[in-house]
Amino acid sequence: MNKYITSIVLVLLSMSGFAQYDEAIEDDFDLLTEEWLERSSDLSGYTGISSYCRSADFRKSVNDLIIEVHHYDSLILDKMNDPVASLSMDFKEQAKTYKDIFKLESEYSTKNFIQHMKETCEFRREIERDKKRLQGGVGTDSYDAQILVLETETQRYLKHIDKLVSKVDDHLHFLYLVE
Questions:
Q1: How many CB atoms lie within 10 A of CB 38?
Q2: pLDDT of 9
Q3: Pairwise CA distance, residues 130 & 54, whole Å
Q4: Number of helical (H) and strand (E) elements in the chain, helices listed first
Q5: Fewer CB atoms near the end CB (10 Å): N or C, the chain?
Q6: Angle at Cα 164 formed by Cα 163 and Cα 168, nearest 5°?
Q7: What is the dihedral of CA 127, 133, 135, 136, to 10 degrees?
Q8: Cα angle 36, 40, 41; round to 5
Q9: What does the pLDDT look like over 118-174, one tens digit per residue?
Q10: pTM value?
Q11: 122-134 burial by CB neighbour count: b if 16+ within 10 A, else e?
């Protein structure tokens, strides 16, 4: 009988540990989402792009942040696939969550992000190398137009990541609402 009671107590303690773990992931991902959206906003302008390209410290902080985002979405997937986890999520919400995390992990992986930013930095370097010629240019062949193209391409890319990170954050609130 004592073994039975001890087992029940251990199960209940582990379930409360899961609930605390869930809340920690949810709270951490909320903060991470806010931090990512701020950093993404910084990166979307020419000054932010230049900082990323020229400052190893800034580049490392951005790359570390995207790595952390991917770490947390992996934790979320692990939690969703855990057979003993008590999740309160309907099938449609679960499918949407899988889809959004998969897209974030595949199309906007850390490797893809770093590669995209490397290409962005190469484009920026070309603009700066041809600055004198471009400043005399007109229309799309001008310095300002090339900067606008660079900013627009970067903003589009970051907007996709922003949207997916925000969606995963929203899904997370549904995922862990266990009463």
A1: 11
A2: 38
A3: 17
A4: 7, 0
A5: C
A6: 120
A7: -150
A8: 120
A9: 999 999 999 999 888 888 766 777 888 899 999 999 999 999 999 999 999 988 877
A10: 0.80
A11: ebbeebeeeeeeb
Do residues 68 and 113 lie in contact, with contact meaning Cβ atoms separated by under 8 Å?
no
CA distance 133 to 141: 9
**Looking at this protein, which amino acid is placed at residue 88?**
S
First to last CA, the chain: 29
What is the number of residues in the chain? 179
Q: Which amino acid is at 152?
A: T
Please write the tens of the pLDDT for every residue from 84-122.
666 666 778 888 888 999 999 999 999 999 999 999 999
Say how far apart CA 157 and CA 165 lie, in whole Å.
13
| DSSP assigned state of 140 | G
Amino acid occupying residue 119: E
Report the alpha-carbon distance of residue 128 to residue 67 in Å, rounded.
29
